[in-house]
Design goal:
The protein has 136 residues and is mainly α. It is built from five helices and no strands. The model has no long low-confidence stretch (mean pLDDT 96).
Length: 136
């Protein structure tokens, strides 16, 4: 599978996990929704804002997939894909929790969204990391 396809698949996997979790009341932070609301505020209705946010999310997913390839080539080239995927997921989760989450108003690691937000973000980043690692 190529980088773009793997990035889109992983981004969609993460978005589906967040969407289902949100519908079940288990996920408080849905990144495509967060992306759409951050960049477009209330300019569009909620479905359009979500769809635009999903496109942003998929674009960043592809970019981070390129990052994964560099991570595998120069960082940890000789470890099993499962371990590499989880390490990459943890790296992205740390970066998100320390930068994007506070900037978008959710606090460190989503703390303003609720007690378990840090864990749901970690799990959904693991979905992304494992899909990328499996298909590249």
């Amino acid at each position: 599978m190529n980088v773009i396809s793997a990035g889109i698949l992983a981004g969609l996997g993460m978005a589906v996990a967040m969407g289902v979790g949100e519908l079940l009341g288990m996920v408080k932070i849905n990144l495509p929704r967060v992306d759409g609301e951050f960049f477009f505020k209330t300019r569009f209705n909620k479905p359009v804002t979500y769809l635009l946010g999903l496109f942003i999310h998929l674009g960043t997913s592809v970019c981070f997939t390129v990052g994964y390839l560099l991570f595998r080539r120069y960082g940890v080239p000789h470890i099993p894909w499962l371990v590499a995927g989880l390490l990459w997921a943890a790296t992205l989760w740390l970066a998100f929790g320390l930068t994007v989450s506070p900037v978008t108003g959710y606090g460190w690691f989503g703390s303003k969204a609720g007690k378990g937000a840090w864990f749901e973000l970690l799990l959904t980043h693991c979905v992304y990391g494992l899909i990328v690692a499996k298909y590249l």
